[in-house]
């Protein structure tokens, strides 16, 4: 059994990680650290775990762990990593943005298995990708891999409220968020940097813009992203590229029908749908922001690092409704 | 024109009051006080007012007002009233719980027009009823008036999130409140006291229990309440009682179809539906918690105090969806 | 009083029209035709009208009307107009797509007051614009008017479920639509034709593409549209253009804060917000699809035709939550 | 491996059953019958299954099955059972109401494991309980078992929209159901009969009324039920009864905190919370209507029949948000 530690155990991504790891056949929760909840049962912070586990939050990380997941807010992981509280022998999967970019990665491998699976298998430290970044990259990687992104890409994506974390704020207030829609950080969202680095990794002459409009949706879980750009290829040619690219990636599937967010909520899947209209290739992708966009992908990375089947513990029942 | 002041102008009930008064043909917003927003345009706190009015929040109440609405949280109104910041000549409509109960009313009249219309017309100071209390009383007043509440009453009611105010908390977080349901303060909700006082006012031998289960609904506006108790009367007899009781009350209507919350959202209406099953008379009522349950009723009281038509400024378009 | 007839009175846009006209100080509902509901009270089809009006649906149009609103589905209005059931003397406002395009307008004026107000005042027959088309045009008209649309425009817009009408279908099923998001007719939505005709009307050298991704949102009312295109102008210059263009249009306002759908639900307003990022001017617009996007705009057109103040009966309380 | 057949495979409960069985370690989907979808892939009816399984719907039941789940609408199972299309050797789990009542059970055992586990283990044919009935019984069984239901019980319960099935209707329309609440069949819901039969089974002098107000909630999955009745016992005594009763039932847990629906969505758990107020014992229960209230419980019954661990394949990740 892989002995697992979690730091920052009271937040949304940690909660989802615990839900997944609880039923993972080859992992064992050893130490879940939360200073604010230290000494309390896990289900005090994550009430859906009531009846599932009797573990309590630790104040300090138990050192008898094989892997540590960092689930604190952005900007806090680097300090933890440097502080020495994590045993040298433990692998690290960081869910924050701190080590995602090449110039400041400090040896962390960017943990998108559909891009970097072989490197992940050899890695000790993983920078788990952002949720929007994951979904958008899934819609674009095969095109970059084929060297086909030679014009600007336009992306619209909508996300559920859990992406904004559990801290109650004006924009996560039910009375405001429900039956609403709004955009934020249009054309400047920080996930653009991750996305461009990955596209450049696959297509080294990539030099175009990615124009991205992020939208807040009136739902809790899931991301739908739509990317389009002009192409001379036929729809069939592009579909073939996508099928070939994802052939041996177990969580990504092509759909011949238009997609909706609900299809993947609760699962680690990414579904893609391709259309061609007016000379533009248009790729829709859907993922669960908390699973494939965060904690599920983190477990997928753990599986790869430890030589397990990539899908171990991740064949999850979808919510569907 | 009636010159209106509002104290506590940045909250939900104040916002709804402003929305109504903006279009009231015989009222004029003179001074909207909010210490936290002093000097800002009203639409900074109530962004839907953008384009509708250029008024700014005051730090202190302008004394040239005919009526003042108190929209602060419970427990704050009594201090304001005693502080002398409200001109002696001004009428007061308090939306808090501070003066609702007979033993501590300090001359405030309980402002439920369907119970106390004549007293309201003569009043200088109004204690505006609670939202649950308004809806539940509408389902029961005609029975009490006829002396028919001689056994325990059971009440279930569900409310929208705006009833909990605009402060972001764990139970108003979208990720939690959406697609959820929960109860709170079962059998002990403080509105029970208002309700029992009114029933006793109409039926002086009233001595039974009112068992009330308040529920939080996954919606923003509206209350649905269901009250039932045993009766020997036929459905028709009870319907006749209700029709007679509400005949000259312009906002309360009987429906011959089952009700839903959406029918009255955005309006000052109360709709009622009666059924008889297994010897029980069952009365469903729906109101908008922010309108008939708060700010609309406050304006209805203002209209009565100033001798206007009770419906002035309150013929509002329903939202319907 | 303007005597009003409505044909197709049981649908969503008709319901909203009735809600508005009920309280319009200078209009009187004379005849609401619905074959399916003939002889029933209006509130049987529109239960929120319970208590507001006692009118029943007609089987045939009463001929004593000054204006007739056509609220049937797309493709049905032309037949009605040609059938002679509408008195020759009556003005017509058609809410369908049947007469919106110049080549088949049959004398109908495209009823977007912010584009064609003077023509509308002289018109007998109005083709009321589409909901997406209205919102998107509001974000672009000042740019076209200034001749500034010289590159492709990219538009993302999300709409509430009432835009899909009241017929229950798989994609309007609550279990599917709630907590979901999806796109439809990407790059090919039929409102593009209206939009391009209007842009060409203002900027006769307009020849670029408008790329439009329509999204279904998990809410009932409202549209948010985001349009962007490259510009050399500064943000301030573009804001000046917008302010000048809409200066005497009472329902359109510029906001200096980012927008959300909720701000305008229930009203006939259009709010706009401008940003400039990475050389792109980005305009967000919000309207209520049933009001400014349909029935409110239809009444605005009626007001203009009959020489009333454009805002008569349209100063509506917003829902806000 | 247990070879599984499903009849009525395109509906909501069948979809949930497939989601569960897909990952069940000891069951294998052999034949999923749907006349309307015969020949199509399962994911055409259940799009969340895209990528998970390549099985197609059958027109007729494959006879090589060990157990058959009947997922058709109420009233259709009896005909199927009598028609002979199910092999004699196969066990049957019927999810409809057809065989739930003692006088017409035809040898079917009422499949509530928390009531009848030993009988279920010996059964060939199971009548799977109703969703409301399951949740309400969980709140009352220990009291009946202790002979403590000697006065009327009052129950309020709210359910998600999936309980109404996938057929689009006026009351499942998103534009109506969202942000709404309504009651239906108050005091007369047909699940009352199941509930009373079970209470009588445990407490043979049970002769009181159960007053039940069913409510439609603005959410898709889950039921919250609140039951209360007068009691002389202390809260601690009743908690002890509940703890003892459910001690060896793996899916039912007591919570010391108030409950919400979200805690159990996606799981087969039932959570219970007890309070005592004003002489009344008040029990809140939550389940997922599609899992513990339908298909999860059906699999739990299958596990018991085939001598598997009761939780096999049912340790499901909760949705939580």
From TrEMBL, chains A, B, C, D:
EC numbers, comma separated: 1.2.1.38
Enzyme class: oxidoreductase
Catalytic residues identified in the record: 131
Subcellular location: Cytoplasm
Gene Ontology CC entries for this record: cytoplasm
InterPro entries attached to this UniProt entry: AGPR, AGPR_AS, AGPR_dimerisation_dom, AGPR_type-1, NAD(P)-bd_dom_sf, Semialdehyde_DH_NAD-bd
Keywords recorded for this protein, A-Z: Amino-acid biosynthesis, Arginine biosynthesis, Cytoplasm, NADP, Oxidoreductase
Pathway: Amino-acid biosynthesis; L-arginine biosynthesis; N(2)-acetyl-L-ornithine from L-glutamate: step 3/4
Keyword Magnesium attached: no
PROSITE patterns (UniProt xref): ARGC
Semialdehyde dehydrogenase NAD-binding domain segment(s): 3-123
Source organism, top-level taxon: Bacteria
Primary localization: cytoplasm
Record Pfam families: Semialdhyde_dh, Semialdhyde_dhC_1
Any one Gene Ontology BP term: L-arginine biosynthetic process
Secretion signal, residue range per the UniProt entry: none
GO molecular function: N-acetyl-gamma-glutamyl-phosphate reductase activity; NAD binding; NADP+ binding
SUPFAM superfamilies, per database record: Glyceraldehyde-3-phosphate dehydrogenase-like, C-terminal domain, NAD(P)-binding Rossmann-fold domains
Reaction it catalyzes: N-acetyl-L-glutamate 5-semialdehyde + phosphate + NADP(+) = N-acetyl-L-glutamyl 5-phosphate + NADPH + H(+)
PANTHER family reported in the protein's UniProt record: N-ACETYL-GAMMA-GLUTAMYL-PHOSPHATE REDUCTASE, CHLOROPLASTIC-RELATED, N-ACETYL-GAMMA-GLUTAMYL-PHOSPHATE REDUCTASE, CHLOROPLASTIC-RELATED-RELATED
Family statement: Belongs to the NAGSA dehydrogenase family. Type 1 subfamily.
Protein name: N-acetyl-gamma-glutamyl-phosphate reductase
């Amino acid at each position: 059994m892989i002995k697992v530690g979690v730091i920052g155990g009271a937040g949304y991504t940690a909660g989802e990680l615990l839900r997944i790891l609880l039923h993972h056949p080859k992992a064992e929760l050893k130490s879940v650290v939360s200073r604010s909840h230290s000494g309390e049962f896990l289900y005090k912070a994550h009430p859906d775990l009531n009846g599932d586990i009797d573990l309590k939050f630790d104040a300090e990380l138990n050192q008898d762990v094989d892997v540590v997941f960092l689930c604190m807010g952005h900007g806090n992981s680097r300090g933890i990593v440097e502080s020495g509280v994590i045993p040298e022998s433990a692998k690290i999967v960081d869910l924050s943005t701190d080590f995602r970019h090449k110039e400041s990665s400090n040896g962390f491998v960017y943990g998108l298995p559909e891009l970097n699976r072989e490197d992940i298998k050899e890695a000790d430290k993983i920078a788990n990708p952002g949720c929007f970044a994951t979904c958008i990259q899934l819609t674009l990687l095969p095109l970059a891999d084929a060297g086909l992104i030679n014009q600007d890409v336009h992306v619209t994506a909508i996300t559920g409220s859990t992406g904004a974390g559990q801290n109650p704020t004006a924009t996560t207030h039910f009375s405001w968020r429900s039956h609403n829609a709004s955009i934020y950080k249009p054309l400047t969202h920080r996930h653009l940097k991750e996305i461009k680095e990955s596209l450049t990794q696959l297509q080294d002459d990539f030099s175009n813009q990615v124009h991205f409009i992020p939208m807040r949706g009136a739902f809790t879980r899931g991301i739908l992203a739509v990317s389009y750009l002009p192409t001379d290829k036929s729809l069939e040619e592009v579909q073939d590229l996508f099928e070939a690219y994802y052939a041996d990636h177990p969580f990504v599937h092509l759909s011949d029908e238009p997609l909706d967010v609900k299809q993947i909520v609760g699962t680690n899947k990414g579904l893609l749908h391709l259309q061609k209209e007016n000379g533009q290739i248009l790729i829709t992708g859907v993922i669960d922001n908390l699973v494939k966009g965060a904690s599920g992908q983190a477990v997928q990375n753990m599986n790869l690092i430890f030589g397990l089947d990539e899908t171990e513990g991740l064949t999850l029942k979808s919510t569907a409704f």
